[in-house]
Write a structure and sequence with these properties.
- Belongs to the glycosyltransferase 1 family. Bacterial/plant glycogen synthase subfamily.
- It catalyses: [(1->4)-alpha-D-glucosyl](n) + ADP-alpha-D-glucose = [(1->4)-alpha-D-glucosyl](n+1) + ADP + H(+).
- Its EC number is 2.4.1.21.
- The protein is of the alpha+beta class.
- It contains 25 helices and 51 strands.
- Helix 20 links the parallel strand 49 and strand 50.
- The two termini are 102 Å apart.
- The N terminus is likely disordered.
């Protein structure tokens, strides 16, 4: 629909004033006002009422489609020879002056007329989807000033708040009113309307025009016709669309038609509301205009000043021969800057291309390469724009020609300091945070890859297992089928005068009577008859049970039972008996063949076996699923328990020196502040007036270096002093010592080891060390004693701490290679006049190199026992060092053990330390001082650090002549046990798995199994286990006494061991014969080596006796506690370091972060043994609940290699510090 409203206004007596403050540029509107209806439609009318035009006639042309209510975009038609006029953000329309000559004005009117036809020009039917169009036309009725400017605009309500500033002032109100003519529709303004200074009274004609226009506006708004969807195509098409709507428009606008006449009072109210809204909007827009104009002027001024300042800087720098400057001169973070280069003063003066290449923060952050462009400045100045990131504190760069010609400021590079941002330390922290984020991201990606790989393996394994289950199901089904077919050949429908079934035709689930002639077999005199039956060769076991009743037949002693035939059965199987199951004594089983009857109407055989195979397959699948779930659950629980144990051990490690130093929090986190507490009363600084704290990080290698000394302040409790430390994000270790003065004096450096506290959660990880063990024993492939256990177990524990470990071992001809994975020839080399072949492989995850000299030294069928053992092992030590040298190895630590590999220490220092293996340090461990004292003494002199296998044993041998001179580098570190080998939760040699949670049940089952195996009385008695080599060192006289004492206390004794000395072995054979004859139900001596039996004794015994005269370390008591058995030991060596008496060692245990765990004695006589053994057995008898809790407690203590590995790593690092 289209209407044309002619708004005629007489020229005002006063001259119209046109303000020229600026132009408005109003963007097209494609949205809608959801809540604006009649009031909005009257805004244009109210504006006309308030500001009557002087000498202008306004015509409003509008079209609308009332058949559609969805608002559409506005499309303004234009003639074929002219482009559509429309505002763009930065290209305002060319203004047209109002004093255009009449012929031009006429042309304009004709052009506009072709664009917007009037109502009288339309004819024909209304189109179904016309476009909405609004236009304004102005007809001058008098002369206007040449200064008055008329502009054009498209109005877009959705972007009204983002209007840019054109060059028209008050005429925006007209554009805004035209915008609000429809509810959200956009119009086109083709004339300028002057904003009048005074409001004139409207005439009667005006009122009528207003009413007509209000009706038009209200109808259009009510029908929500807002915009058209498609662009204008041709002027002709648009005009036709508008014409099609004209008849509908005329009907809607006719006040005499069905729409009725608008009430004057309502119109006036709407006009007033429109006037208020228009005035408010006008004020808001004027305020916004003012701010935007001020901002624009400010921007122009700044641009001008910037240009002037750059010109000034260019002139100054040119005159001072300075070839580079930057604007602004003070560079700040997160800022755009312009970099200038005077090419004529540069080495690039003859180059056509100039580029800058650089980065930020000492070339460490966000590199860039940018091309420079020639500027307008006086001189040969080139420039480019750069953005300074917020993390920058310096810009580093050079200029170049894009190829190989550079200006790098005389090899010093150019640099610009960035003010007010990060400093170098803050940037380091920022980089560390970035690194942490990247590590977390990589860890997540790696975890996802591992998950996907695990899922892939699981699917493949599932597929393989499923195929195996199908194959097994098929095989089992075929086997069943063959057996059943053989059975069916033997089956019958009845046997004359013995049995028959009625009815003789039956099928599965039928109720039948099975008749039996009692007098036909061994049950002729039975008082009762019972049937015990099943089907298909007893497939489901005993499934038919019933008592027989006497039949009415008179031709024999017939009895019958009513039986439900099992579903899907082919054959019925049964026997007759004189009673129900478990109570019958006499059977008729058809001469051991059982009775079998064919089921005549069974299901088709082929269908049955197909279903049977599928059923078997499903059964196998379910069994496998349950089995795998149990294995997986057990593995997860094992891993969880190991992790928990490791965490507890680390905590105990941190608290082990709490009497001297500790931190709060105990777990120091990177990027936080920690407080260090120190008790000088327990150190060499006792009584000093001051204590100074000196620290660094990462084993004294941190980028920050040693921090300045800090004076420690008194703490709140006792003699403690404290200080705080800011831990950087890239720290993994906090290192410190204490001194009496700021500049030194007396130091407490933990006897040369320094104090070290691990730091958690940092972005940096401790770099791995490379440790090489040179040894002649190694479990489980070349084990003689405890040395072999230590070599493999310590290596695994160190490798679990993310370090690299290798072992070099002789290739004995008696090696147990079944425990070596990936065994292969590695390489060969010559040394000492002989060829040496090297083999490699993996033993329990550790890389092992086997040296095989071709001189036959290790082809003797034994490890020890040759007359030339010293020569053999000396050659091996030299060959091992030669292998490291020729193989290009650069270990950090070479660890040799006992007298047999002691020569490594001096051979290294004399022949290899300065010839390619200078990085390495030598650590030597004494396992037993009884053998090879000369070699041990020489190794003590040459090694960098030396250890023995327990702290107490190190003190016991400190007076030895080969040890005493080297106490400053001699340390005691307790051995551990392999918690994978000795694990009651996964031990295949004991009847049931157990942990500390069910230790009582587990040990009870193990005791009963042990008693049955050894033929002891199965009774709940205190059981003492003894597992040992029978030598004088092990206290064999105390062992004999303990056996008799246990029997006197009504206990049981089991001994497992053998003696290398035949005389001792015979002595114990005689004792065994005596005990077995007199106390065979309570004593058993097994004088041999039996690995499975040792596991059973550890699990089944209540106590394990270790009465050694001396014991460097001892593993027996540690394994006993792992299995919940209580150790009874003599106080010596490692036994004293690991067993804390429940009555006497509470404080000593607490100092180690432990609880008492056993019984001990001091002397080496029978009275000492009695004292400990009597208390132990009495506790078992008298306080059983307490004793059970003690078993649980010792199981939860960690005697693995977790703690010793940490101690050895401290020792390795201390050795590395030595020059």
């Amino acid at each position: 629909m289209e209407v044309t409203l002619q708004l005629q206004r007489p020229v005002s007596g006063s001259r119209s004033v046109f303000h020229e403050r600026g132009f408005f540029k109003i963007k097209p509107f494609t949205g809608s006002f959801s809540n604006v209806r009649t009031t909005q439609s009257l805004q244009f009318v109210s504006w006309c009422t308030e500001h009557p035009t002087s000498g202008f006639s306004h015509r409003i042309s509008a079209t609308s489609d009332f058949s559609r209510r969805r608002q559409r975009k506005v499309s303004t038609p234009s003639p074929k020879d002219s482009a559509a006029k429309q505002f763009t953000p930065k290209t305002p329309k060319t203004p047209v002056r109002t004093n255009t000559p009449k012929r031009n004005q006429k042309k304009n009117e004709e052009r506009e007329g072709s664009s917007m036809p009037t109502l009288s020009e339309y004819g024909g039917p209304t189109k179904k989807t016309p476009e909405t169009k609004i236009s304004f036309e102005e007809k001058p009725e008098g002369e206007l000033s040449g200064d008055n400017i008329i502009g054009e605009a498209y109005v877009d309500e959705t972007e009204i708040e983002n209007e840019e500033i054109p060059q028209i002032s008050k005429s925006l109100a007209v554009a805004k009113s035209s915008q609000l003519v429809e509810n959200g529709s956009a119009g086109r303004v083709d004339e300028h309307v002057a904003v009048l200074q005074k409001k004139e009274t409207t005439s009667e004609t005006d009122s009528k025009n207003v009413k007509d226009e209000s009706a038009l506006e209200r109808n259009i708004a009510d029908d929500d016709v807002a915009r058209s969807e498609k662009k204008e195509t041709t002027s002709k098409t648009n005009i036709e669309n508008v014409k099609d709507e004209s008849s509908l428009e005329r009907k809607e606008l006719n006040p005499n038609k069905s729409n009725g006449i608008v009430n004057d009072e309502i119109v006036q109210t709407d006009i007033k509301a429109s006037e208020d809204a228009s005035l408010k909007l006008k004020l808001e827009i004027e305020a916004k205009l003012k701010l935007e104009m001020e901002a624009k002027l400010k921007l122009e001024m700044e641009t001008k000043l910037r240009k002037q300042e750059i010109e000034r800087l260019a002139e100054v720098n040119f005159l001072t021969k300075n070839k580079m400057f930057v604007y602004p001169q003070v560079v700040k973070p997160d800022q755009d800057i312009e970099l200038f280069l005077n090419r004529s003063l540069s080495t690039l003066s003859n180059e056509p291309d100039v580029l800058v290449m650089g980065a930020f923060n000492d070339w460490r952050w966000k590199s860039f390469t940018v091309r420079l462009n020639k500027t307008h400045l006086k001189g040969d100045w080139w420039s480019c724009h750069l953005h300074v990131p917020k993390e920058a504190y310096k810009i580093d760069f050079v200029f170049f020609n894009g190829q190989n010609v550079y200006d790098n400021n005389d090899m010093k590079d150019f640099c610009i300091t960035v003010e007010g941002g990060m400093d170098v330390f803050a940037f380091e922290d920022f980089l560390l945070e970035e690194k942490r984020w990247e590590q977390e991201k990589l860890a997540k990606e790696q975890a996802e890859r591992e998950r996907q790989e695990e899922e892939r393996r699981r699917i493949e394994a599932e597929k393989a297992a499923s195929e195996a289950d199908r194959a097994q199901a098929k095989m089992e089904t075929e086997k069943k089928r063959e057996m059943l077919q053989q059975l069916m050949k033997m089956a019958a429908k009845s046997v004359d005068n013995v049995w028959y079934i009625e009815p003789n035709e039956f099928k599965g689930e039928d109720l039948v009577r099975l008749y039996y002639n009692k007098s036909s077999g061994p049950l002729a005199h039975a008082k009762e008859l019972w049937i015990h039956g099943g089907h298909d060769n007893w497939k489901d076991g005993l499934s038919i049970i019933g008592k027989l009743d006497m039949a009415e037949r008179t031709d024999g002693d017939w009895w019958y039972a009513e039986v439900v035939v099992p579903d899907r059965a082919f054959v019925l199987d049964w026997v007759f008996a004189d009673g129900p199951p478990q109570k019958a004594t006499v059977y008729d089983n058809n001469h051991r063949q059982d009775f079998h009857a064919i089921v005549p109407q069974s299901i088709p055989e082929e269908l049955y076996w197909v279903e049977e195979e599928h059923k078997t397959y499903r059964k196998l699948q379910e069994e496998r699923r349950l089995r795998e779930e149990a294995i997986r659950a057990k593995a997860e629980k094992t891993a969880r328990m190991k992790a928990e144990t490791k965490e507890k051990t680390l905590k105990r490690f941190l608290l082990s020196q709490k009497h001297i130093v500790y931190t709060e929090p105990l777990d120091v986190q990177a990027g936080t502040t920690a407080t260090v507490f120190y008790n000088p009363a327990n150190t060499v600084l006792n009584g000093k007036s001051e204590v100074w704290f000196r620290c660094s990080f990462n084993r004294w290698t941190h980028r920050l270096g040693p921090l300045p000394p800090q004076k420690m302040l008194p703490a709140d409790n006792g003699s403690l002093v404290k200080t705080t430390v800011k831990v950087p994000l890239d720290a993994y270790m906090l290192d410190f010592v204490f001194s009496e003065k700021e500049d030194g004096g007396i130091f407490d450096n933990k006897y040369g080891m320094d104090y070290h506290i691990p730091v958690f959660g940092g972005v940096a990880k401790e770099p791995p060390m490379h440790i090489v063990h040179v040894a002649v024993e190694m479990a489980p492939i070349a084990k003689v004693g405890g040395l072999g256990d230590v070599v493999i177990s310590l290596s695994r524990a160190i490798q679990d701490l993310n370090h690299n470990v290798d072992i070099i071992l002789p290739k004995y001809d008696c090696l147990n290679l079944s425990n070596v994975k990936d065994f292969r020839y590695y390489r060969g080399y010559h040394w000492g006049g002989t060829e040496i072949k090297v083999w490699s492989g993996k033993v329990e995850g550790i890389s092992v190199y086997f040296l095989e000299p071709q001189n036959g030294f290790f082809s003797t069928g034994c490890i020890y026992g040759c007359r030339n053992d010293g020569e053999r092992f000396g050659f091996f030590c030299h060959a091992a060092l030669e292998f490291l040298l020729q193989g290009g190895f650069h270990p950090d630590i070479i660890h040799c053990h006992d007298w047999s590999s002691a020569p490594v220490a001096w051979l290294f220092k004399d022949h290899y330390m300065h010839y390619g293996l200078s990085k390495a340090r030598v650590v030597f461990t004494i396992h037993n001082l009884e053998f090879g004292v000369d070699n041990i003494g020489k190794a003590m002199a040459y090694s960098d650090k030396a250890t023995t296998v327990s702290n107490t044993y190190s003190k016991e041998v400190a007076g030895n002549a080969v040890i005493a001179p080297y106490l400053h580098k001699f340390h005691g570190i307790i051995n551990g046990i392999d918690q994978d080998i000795w694990d009651p939760y996964n031990d295949k040699f004991i009847p049931i798995s157990y942990t500390s949670e069910n230790v009582v049940e587990g040990k009870r089952a193990a005791k009963e199994a042990l008693q049955r195996r050894l033929g002891l009385k199965t009774s709940d008695l205190p059981l003492v286990g003894i597992i040992t080599r029978l030598t004088h060192q092990k206290g064999i006289h105390l062992i004999k006494h303990a056996i008799w004492r246990t029997l006197e206390r009504n206990g049981q004794v089991v001994l497992l061991g053998s003696a290398p000395d035949p005389r001792i072995q015979n002595d114990f054979v005689n004792l065994a014969n005596q005990l077995h004859s007199a106390h065979g139900d309570r004593a058993r001596l097994c004088l041999t080596y039996d690995e499975p039996l040792s596991h059973m004794i550890y699990a089944g015994a209540d106590f394990v006796l270790v009465p050694s005269i001396f014991e460097p370390c001892g593993l027996t008591q540690l394994v006993a506690m792992r299995y919940g058995s209580i150790p009874v030991v003599r106080k010596t060596g490692g036994l004293y370091d690991t067993v804390f008496d429940v009555d006497h060692d509470k404080e000593r245990a607490e100092a180690q972060g432990l609880e008492p765990n056993g019984f001990s004695f001091d002397g080496a006589d029978s009275a000492g043994v009695d004292y400990a053994l009597n208390r132990a057995i009495s506790a078992w008898y008298d306080t059983r609940d307490w004793f059970d809790s003690l078993c649980k407690r010792v199981m939860e203590q960690d005697w693995s290699w977790n703690r010793p590995a940490l101690d050895y790593m401290e020792l390795y690092h201390a050795a590395q510090k030595l020059k």
